[in-house]
Amino acid sequence: MSNLLNSYFVKTHKLEISITIIAIVLFLIYFLGAPHVFTRFPIYRAFMQSMPFFGIIAISATFVVTLGEIDLSFPSIVGITSLIFGMVMTSTDGNVFIAFILATSLGMFAGLVNGLLVTKIGIPSIVATIGTLFFWRGLVNVISQGSGIAIVDVADGTWHHMIFVEKLFGKIPMQFIWFIVLTGLMQWVYRYHKFGNHIHFVGDNKASAQMMGINVDNVKIIAFVQLGFFSALAGIFTMYEMLYFWPTQGEGLMLTTLAAVFVGGTSVFGGKGTIFGTFIGVLIIGSLESGIVALGLSGFYVKFINGLMITVAVTVYALIQRRKN
Amino acid sequence: MAQELLKLENIYKNFGNVKVLKDVNIKINKGEVVALIGDNGAGKSTLIKVITGVHSPNSGKVFFKNEEVQIKSVAQSRKMGIEAVYQERALCDQQELFRNIFAGREITNSFGFLDIKKQRKEAEKILRDYIGFTSKAITVDSQVMGLSGGEKQGVAFGRSLYFNSDLIVLDEPTMGLSIQETEKVLNFVKGLKNENKSAIFIDHNIIHVYGAADRFIILDRGEVVGEFNKEEISREELVQKMIQLHESGKIKVED
Asked: How confident is the model at residue A110, as a pLDDT?
């Protein structure tokens, strides 16, 4: 046992292991407290259906948080890109290629704006992205004039609807498959690609990274751009699921998404993080509401317990960090 | 006649209205260790950052191996064979040693994915052969955080040797080190000469500088105010000159 605890894997994956144990305990509580719900498949199908919408963004946001930066504008990027997707879909009679390319390009453009404000103008990311949060949502309101867009006629029953959100073998929602695949891919990039490597170095110590020949500004800009892309992608998934665009689309995403990243163990101070942890964070944050209600507590507890989870998690991680230093 | 490695001609550098470097001319030969000395704010750090590509000069010419060059980035200066060893800031604390050694010039495949195996193997070689780490507590997977100042400096030196650079730039390499560690660093600098490598060396401690360098360039408020070969000046005289400079703002250069 002590051998196992001292092994290289355990030593280097403390955060991942702790967060996994927390998730297992949480699901055990659900399981024991509400067996009638948690021994049956539908609750898991519901999780698989709803988690990817914010999960995809959380995975992507882990890169930005590892830089020691933050992006608060992604809920509005989801809004504006979904609007464009809906408009192009309805006006081209369901040309998914054009709609997809325009929506994701706009997402990347919005990310580029954030990146440039942070690096070239020098505005702290928390301030810059509050600005763009309002800007893009405002633009959604101006363009949509408060009305929604139904894409049911051009999307329902199509091949693209099938590959985005229909059920594999009639059971597993496709968006969950995509979420798993993207998580795997992003984990690989995060740990084993030059870009992921540079993200860690810039987040750890900007000045050192610069002196080691890493182009700090470019790394930051690319991080914001990819978050813009994945925000657009999450918006598109949501559109296919709902077959409808509504002007407040994306607004509820901010806290759950960032909570998943922080609960997952990515350092608020930058330089250290884990994609796997964020994935588990998504499972935790995404299951809390249903779990709490299934346990028989009233819905009023949801925010309270959510808040408790986040506060305790970031406190523990900060303490682990401090002990190391 | 010694072979010339690096020559700076009429270098000016401003930050806004502040003139940090004014008409700096220096030359470094192959196999020569040159010390840059001067008070805080004399422009030493800015000068070496011009050489390593962190800053671009506002005007002036840079020659490397007798060719005029414009050093626009750290990556470029490294490619040319200039390697910087910065005190403290040389490494990122929370990242593993093998990642630190290759930061900014990772060994990758054509898609940009890291060859972790090769990086770890080469890092292992650097730790063993170039630095002589024997401690089992330090492996290529160690985070830099746990290393002492001297060990960090050792890693930074090992890195510069591994990449086979011609000119090694040392920014305060002995600051904050223990006496033993300082000794190691100075020996390392002396050892460079045997390999016909050159170095520029900044240090506040004139005693350290005097032992390790062949030539001394004194900077004051952005200008070169004196230049001495080791055989021309004793340690005491060098110290005297610095005190004199500090008091009067001028150096008397006898001819």
From this structure: 97
* Residue range(s) defining the domain that contains residue A123: 50-254
C-alpha A261/C-alpha A66 separation (Å) is 10
Look at residue B148 and tell me whether its pLDDT is greater than 80.
Answer: no
Among B46, B82, B83, B113, pick the best mutation site for testing chain A contact (most A Cβ within 10 A). B113
What is B4-92+164-248's CATH topology? Answer: Rossmann fold (3.40.50)
Residue A2 forms part of a structural domain: no
Q: Which are the contacts of B16, defined by CB distance < 8 A and separation ≥ 6?
A: none
Return the domain boundaries, chain B.
4-92+164-248
Smallest CA-to-CA distance from A222 within A210, A230, A212 is with: A230
Output the pLDDT for position A217: 94
CA pair distance B66, A110, nearest whole angstrom: 47
Give per-residue pLDDT as tens, B180-221. 778 877 877 877 777 788 889 888 777 777 888 888 898 888
Q: Which pair of tokens denotes residue A209?
A: 């990274």
Mutate to test the interface with B, among A11, A197, A199, A322 (most CBs of B within 10 A): A197
Predicted confidence (pLDDT) per residue in A196-208, tens digit: 999 999 999 888 8
* Domains identified in chain A, total number: 1
Residue B139: the pLDDT is 82
Q: What's the whole-model pTM score?
A: 0.84
CB nearest A193 (choices: B52, B103, B112): B112
Closest Cβ–Cβ partner in A195, A210, A271 for B112: A195
